[in-house]
Amino acid sequence: MNLRIIQLGITHLNECVDLDQKTLNGLWSRFQWERELIEPNRICLGIIELETKKLLGLCSAWLVIDELQITFIAVHPTYQRRGLGKFLFSELIKYSKSLQTNHINLEVKKNNEQAKAFYKSLGFKTVGLRSNFYKDGSDALILNKETLNKS
Ligand SMILES: CC(C)(COP(=O)(O)OP(=O)(O)OC[C@H]1O[C@@H](n2cnc3c(N)ncnc32)[C@H](O)[C@@H]1OP(=O)(O)O)[C@@H](O)C(=O)NCCC(=O)NCCS
Description:
Aminopeptidase; 4 helices; alpha+beta
């Protein structure tokens, strides 16, 4: 596969909403995606397959002082477990280093075993819990990874 990492913008709105539906059952509304893709302090990266121009994966993050808060990461179900999530994340790390960030934080549903295994493989540590964090009442684990001088 010929892949390219690109910065996503408002022209990718439909594809982002679609990938969110397919992977996280619509975590964000269309309006939230619109805001995410427009606001300048948000970083949205996507993996595009060059031949088909299909969006295979995306991640979104906010810069909060010296911390990068990952708010969304997903890989199209057909392409999962082929290293694309790791690839996307390594690009985000490169980007965050260029912004001099020291930490990456994120929340993950306590029962999302797939995502927890993914983050563990990337070196994230659990540092806290937010009760009743998601719409469905489930709890979130707070994960953290130091990025300074580390890959
Ligand atoms: C989490 C997600 C982004 C991972 O993307 P991916 O492209 O499948 O992950 P990778 O292929 O890069 O996997 C990297 C490593 O993570 C771990 N991993 C990933 N998926 C896993 C799974 N289903 N079970 C166990 N370990 C897994 C493995 O250690 C894997 O390395 P390996 O394949 O060499 O064993 C993807 O599963 C996804 O989109 N899930 C649905 C959306 C979601 O839950 N997002 C997170 C919200 S917080």
